[in-house]
Give the backbone structure.
Amino acid sequence: MTTDAKPSSRERLLEAAATLTYRDGVGIGVDALCKAAGVSKRSMYQLFASKDELLAASLKERASAYTATLLPAADDNRSPRRRIMHVFDQLESQAGAPDFQGCRYLVVQIELKDQGHPASRVAHRVKENLTGFFRAEAERGGASDPDLLARQLILVFDGASARAGIQADSPTGLIVPTVTTLLDAAGVS
Amino acid sequence: MTTDAKPSSRERLLEAAATLTYRDGVGIGVDALCKAAGVSKRSMYQLFASKDELLAASLKERASAYTATLLPAADDNRSPRRRIMHVFDQLESQAGAPDFQGCRYLVVQIELKDQGHPASRVAHRVKENLTGFFRAEAERGGASDPDLLARQLILVFDGASARAGIQADSPTGLIVPTVTTLLDAAGVS
């Protein structure tokens, strides 16, 4: 019975960590996480060495789904320019959700203020992968400086996401013209 | 004696709130703030209705110095383009400091996740003032769409600041070409 229950407790803890951390911040307590997951603290510490590890695991668990939502499909044969724009269309769509607080992989790094934290390292890799996508598409699209364009695109992604998350602005009417200008300047087709 | 001590306690609390919140996040406890300030909790609550009010006051206290550091002097007669670039030069300089964690007025809003919080409201106004500066300079510089350019510039400011704060990137070699491209596209002289 204990063996059967373990995967379910793990999943509920990962879900609670992802949801509550995003909603309330990384300061959320172990008690609140365990209560939301319906799991005892004892069980939590059998599954995860620490709250830090639980948080890192919850970010890792969602990373591939997050990336899949943002990136175009592997067999999407549109131009690099359209494939890059696809990511920003997805961001614009995500930012329209009422509970949007910004990209969780950016927010968690801002909140933790510790790049060596296991959760920061997971989040850093997720954003590096997105930057890598931009760089590869920039190269394929003949950008004059693919590294610079990739840095500019992830800057726009994070800036727009952060500002939408705090309700200072909306990506609508902002991201598309900004990315268009940067792609044009870099000569990406 | 109590009367003489009050201004000093207040200043120490504002300083502790600014420093510790920036370093450790908005979850910092009242005990830690009072300890760092060398002020009793009783005295703190005589000076500030709540920790939220102390945080808001600490942000407000620094707001004009922050804006003065970023903006060009009132008698700085350079072109709108150079006056806008001045702000980004200042950001680049700030981001080089070893304890830089991003613009505190962005970070606090991301962490609080509550736009009605008194500290979020102070921070929101500070960023609105900066956006207003960009918009005024964009207009003076003949931008084709001053509103759009102002939104783009504050997006770049916040994106670059956030990414430098988490050590994902540095503004060097990134902000100047990005802002230049946006100013060129908008036709700002």
